[in-house]
Specification:
alpha+beta; Translation Initiation Factor Eif1; 2 domains; 5-stranded mixed sheet; SUI1; mRNA binding; translation initiation factor activity; translation regulation; SUI1_dom_sf
C-alpha cells in the first residue's frame, strides 16, 4: 500500500518492470542480491496488477531512445552555407590564450562587406578583414569576442532582423 503511493505513475512502473524482467531474463543480473526473495516479492507486487489488467500497460512501441545532443548540428548541416534560410551566423573562434576571433557569415550579397566592416571596426575599436571562403562566400572577421556587439549593430542599422541572426560559440 505504501509502495502504491510512490509508484502511482503506471508508465514508470511498467518501464521499471519491463527493465528488470528483461535484465533477469538476459542473465545480466546474475548476482545473488538481485535474486533474493524480497526483490522477487517486490517485482511480483509490481507485476500482478498488470497481469490482471493488461490494458494498464502503456504502449511503448513509439518510445524514443535519447541520443547524444550536438549543439553544433545545425551549423554543421549540409544546407548551412552562406545565406541558408536567410540566417546570419555570428561565431567566435578561440585563437590562443585570451585571443579570439568573431566571424560573421550569411549577409546578403547586395551589401558592401567592406563598408559594413569599416563601420564595425570604427564602432568597436577593433581590427578586422573580409575573407573569401570557397564554401561560405565572403566572411567578415573581427578581433575579439564581438558577438553581442555585432548582433546589436546589424539590427540597429537595419541590415538584418533579430529573428534572422544565429549566435554560435561558447
Amino acid at each position: 500500500m505504501i509502495i502504491n503511493i510512490f509508484f502511482h505513475n503506471d508508465e514508470f512502473v511498467a518501464t521499471l518492470v519491463l527493465f528488470f524482467t528483461c535484465e533477469l531474463l538476459s542473465n545480466r543480473l546474475n548476482s545473488p542480491a538481485w535474486i533474493c526473495p524480497d526483490f522477487l516479492g517486490f517485482l511480483l507486487f509490481l507485476v500482478v496488477p498488470f497481469i490482471q489488467n493488461p490494458n494498464r500497460l502503456p504502449d511503448l512501441s513509439n518510445t524514443c531512445i535519447p541520443t547524444a545532443f550536438d549543439p553544433f548540428a545545425e551549423a554543421n548541416a549540409e544546407d548551412s552555407g552562406a545565406g541558408s534560410k536567410e540566417y546570419v551566423h555570428i561565431r567566435v573562434q578561440q585563437r590562443n590564450g585570451r585571443k579570439s576571433l568573431t566571424t560573421v557569415q550569411g549577409l546578403k550579397k547586395d551589401f558592401s562587406y567592406n563598408k559594413i566592416l569599416k563601420d564595425l571596426k570604427k564602432e568597436f575599436c577593433c581590427n578586422g578583414t573580409v575573407v573569401q571562403d570557397p564554401e561560405l562566400g565572403q566572411v567578415i572577421q573581427l578581433q575579439g569576442d564581438q558577438r553581442k556587439n555585432v548582433s546589436a549593430f546589424l539590427t540597429q542599422a537595419g541590415i538584418v532582423k533579430k529573428d534572422h541572426i544565429k549566435i554560435h560559440g561558447f
